[in-house]
Design goal:
With 288 residues, the protein is mainly beta. The chain contains three helices and nine strands. A hairpin with a 4-residue loop joins strand 7 and strand 8. It is elongated and about 70 Å long.
């Protein structure tokens, strides 16, 4: 039986990434119970780069938290699995790249990724004779997102609205047959740099900064041209479709976003990892 691909994810794009993960994570399955294992937490910040923020690093950074599992193949090579929860946001009024467009969004991001880490210096977790090493990492995985924005009610109170079901650029609208509703699950390719160090014989720490190139241009619900407001189904959709300050409702066909470039998001923070005791080797003194 052939499993259908997730909507919005290309098998051709993701196959090489997951092949690398399988090769390096599971090439030596019995060793996964050894002392080369670490479990830990990640905590830091997250931010976004895309149509509302093309280039400002660390702009509008929000909190990111998660868990990590690391397997150390040797002093120079490790593999890691990440499960991270975060949120990202963009605001034309604050970023000022296209202030007149007047759009804003916030999106929760949940990712499951794998990465390979290459240490520049020999580094053994818990060995104080190898105190630290800079490293680079790369990998990929999948993530979910859900862009939202605030809508004022008649009394001026704000409530959060999911933007994807609205089809703010005509997605899912019969008048725009070439614009399908985008998936809220996508793939990513990640890379970054870091510095890991031994805190004690059982605890390692690390500082890192990683970029994620996504497989979607709708992390911010912005991608292509303005739709004709008269063809959109509701006043709520019209409100979020065109919030421009100077000529609202007069932008049909004009550029709202850049469809040639997918969105990015980034994590920067601290990793605290704990060695997992080797229960298997404890059964044989000679093996230790």
């Amino acid at each position: 039986m052939i499993t259908p691909p997730l909507p919005g994810i290309s098998n051709k794009k993701t196959r090489p990434v997951f092949l690398l993960l399988f090769v390096f994570l599971f090439i030596n399955t019995p060793a996964l119970l050894g002392q080369k294992n670490e479990l830990g937490v990640f905590f830091g910040g997250s931010y976004y780069l895309g149509d509302l923020n093309p280039s400002r690093q660390f702009a509008m950074t929000r909190i990111a938290l998660g868990g990590v599992y690391r397997y150390n193949f040797n002093p120079h090579l490790s593999a890691r699995v990440n499960g991270i929860f975060a949120s990202v946001e963009g605001n034309d009024a604050l970023i000022k790249y296209n202030e007149d467009r007047n759009l804003r969004f916030v999106s929760r991001v949940t990712e499951l990724t794998g990465q390979l880490e290459v240490n520049f210096l020999p580094f053994v977790a818990g060995n104080l004779d190898t105190p630290y090493s800079p490293y680079i990492f790369f990998g990929g995985g999948v993530f979910s997102f859900n862009p939202q924005a605030q809508l004022p009610d008649d009394e001026g109170r704000l409530r959060w609205i999911n933007l994807r079901p609205l089809g703010t650029e005509g997605q899912g609208n019969e008048n725009y047959p070439d614009r399908e509703l985008y998936s809220l699950v996508s793939s990513n390719f990640l890379f970054g740099i870091g510095l890991k160090f031994n805190i004690s014989r059982n605890i390692t720490g690390g500082l890192e900064w990683g970029m994620r190139r996504t497989g979607t241009d709708y992390l911010d619900d912005v991608s292509t041209t303005y739709a004709d407001l008269e063809l959109l189904p509701s006043a709520t959709t019209q409100y979020f479709a065109d919030r421009s300050l100077s000529n609202p409702g007069q932008n049909t066909g004009l550029q709202r976003g850049d469809p040639t470039s997918n969105d990015w998001y980034s994590f920067a923070g601290f990793v605290l990892a704990f060695k997992i005791k080797d229960f298997t080797r404890g059964k044989c003194a000679a093996y230790n």
